[in-house]
Specification:
Strands 6, 7, 8, 13, 14, 16, 17 and 22 form an eight-stranded mixed beta sheet that branches. Strands 9, 20, 21, 25, 26 and 27 form a six-stranded mixed beta sheet that branches. This protein is α+β, with helices and mostly antiparallel strands. The protein is about 20% helix and about 25% strand. A hairpin with a 5-residue loop joins β23 and β24. Calcium ion (CA) binds next to loops.
């Protein structure tokens, strides 16, 4: 992959909102989502975000005027099937990106034909952008792993395998939901602090409900069972990235996680942002992958010159909260923390190479969660567990409310964006999720 004409900062769109200051969706971005008009029974279809609009690819396909190659690429997209397009790998994706950009750029002769294919984002509802059949959640932030490890195992925070093997577990795809979908507080088993050894656990609504700030990487091209993807080929199997809030019930988790890892503490709902930002759009934001002095270098199957030169991504991440009281007072969400994906201990290419090294097959639309993306500084915890020292140091919000964990009615927003000198800023849109009372 490389920087090409589609990243030209001088490019503008005839959709004026694409040039708005701080816009997430300039013409250099063009992320994919699945939508319909809000409240309608229309079939879901695939769209591309441009400014504050969605370009409806079903309508755009009907409008005609595309090359034979691009018209063929639009067929599954017009039918609402992003997975079929994802499966084709990067070359068709680049061809469509280039064609859509030519059609949307200022001065394009296609403006009159395509303007009626735009729908305001404010007037649509989203589904998950693609079908996700398998979901793996990794643990790529060494800062998160160390901070959480310290809370669960003060004497032994970072387990000895961490710096050698990308840690992950198989999550549950059925409870992945799109941004805006509220989640009920889960009921479950937990042990109250100070409960005598050997006593029965308590049961009831989770008391330590938390979010996790994550990125979700979507697989594009599949690999066959038994055929590993080398780190050199890994980028050809990545489609793009979205935001992921992995709601977590900490009290359930502490009681259930040994010896097989998280289960009901994680699978009651995880929220995805509606847009998938493609790997092409992220290309200008690649940065070198490095290891701290004294840390082991990755094993050969997780190492390549290309990965060292540009395997990491400079993506700014932010968590915001809006409590029910703030919402009632008309107050906007406030930031709780900010971090950057470049501080991840493993790159996306390493996650793909590791996930498949044993022959495991990945399919189009499979989701690889990054794990909670905490930064190196205090205050950069990607979860409340970290920001409140395990629930011991409450956070005070600007309106005077305090939080140790998420309360009913709280809405958590994840945001992400990339910016660099000489390149047009791109954003991910928001990933929003609110908590409802336990059933
Ligand atoms: Ca997680």
């Amino acid at each position: 992959m490389a920087i090409d004409a589609t990243h030209d900062p001088a490019l503008t769109s005839w959709v004026a909102s694409a040039q708005a200051a701080g816009a997430d969706f300039p013409i250099q971005n063009l992320p994919f989502g699945r939508f319909r008009r809000a409240g309608s029974a229309e079939p879901w279809r695939i769209g591309v975000a441009i400014g504050d609009q969605v370009l409806d690819l079903a309508a755009a396909a009907r409008a005609g005027g595309w090359s034979a190659e691009v018209a063929a690429l639009l067929v599954p997209l017009a039918a609402g099937d992003l997975n079929a397009f994802m499966a084709q790998g990067p070359a068709p994706r680049r061809a469509l990106r280039s064609a859509l950009q030519a059609a949307l750029r200022t001065g394009s002769a296609r403006q009159a034909a395509l303007a009626p294919c735009l729908v305001a984002q404010a007037e649509v509802e989203f589904s998950l952008p693609c079908s996700v059949h398998d979901y793996t959640d990794f643990y790529t932030s060494v800062h998160h792993a160390t901070a959480v490890g310290r809370l669960f195992r003060p004497d032994n925070p970072l387990l000895p395998n961490y710096k050698w093997v990308p840690i992950g577990y198989h999550g549950r795809a059925s409870s992945l939901v799109v941004s805006g979908t509220p989640i009920r507080r889960p009921n479950g088993q937990f042990r109250l602090p100070g409960a005598p050894e050997g006593s029965a656990p308590d049961f009831g609504p989770c008391r330590r409900l938390d979010y996790e700030l994550e990125l979700g990487a979507y697989v594009g091209r599949a690999n066959a069972l038994g055929e590993p993807v080398s780190i050199g080929q890994a980028d050809e199997h990545l489609f793009g990235l979205g935001l992921l809030n992995d709601w977590s019930a900490r009290d359930l988790q502490a009681w259930e996680y040994q010896p097989l890892g998280p289960f009901l503490s994680k699978n009651f709902g995880s929220v995805l942002s509606p847009w998938i930002v493609t790997m092409e759009a992220l290309e200008p934001f690649r940065v070198p992958f490095t290891r701290p002095e004294g840390d082991p270098q990755p094993l050969p199957y997780l190492d390549s010159a290309e990965n060292r030169a540009g395997g990491a991504l400079d993506i700014q991440l932010q968590v915001r909260i809006q409590t029910a009281q703030m919402r009632a007072a008309g107050e906007p969400a406030v930031a709780l923390m900010q971090s950057n994906f470049r501080d991840s201990y493993w790159t996306l290419a390493q996650l793909i190479a590791h996930h498949t090294v044993n022959g495991c097959n990945l399919n189009p639309g499979d989701l690889l969660g990054s794990g909670t993306l905490s930064g190196p500084q205090p205050g950069q915890g990607g979860s409340l567990l970290e920001l409140t020292g395990g629930g011991k140091q409450p956070i005070t919000l600007p309106n005077g409310e305090t939080r140790t964990f998420v309360q009913d009615g709280d809405s958590i927003e994840l945001h992400a964006w990339c910016e660099r000198e000489g390149v047009v800023r791109i954003g991910f849109g928001a990933c929003v999720g609110a908590i409802l009372p336990a059933p």
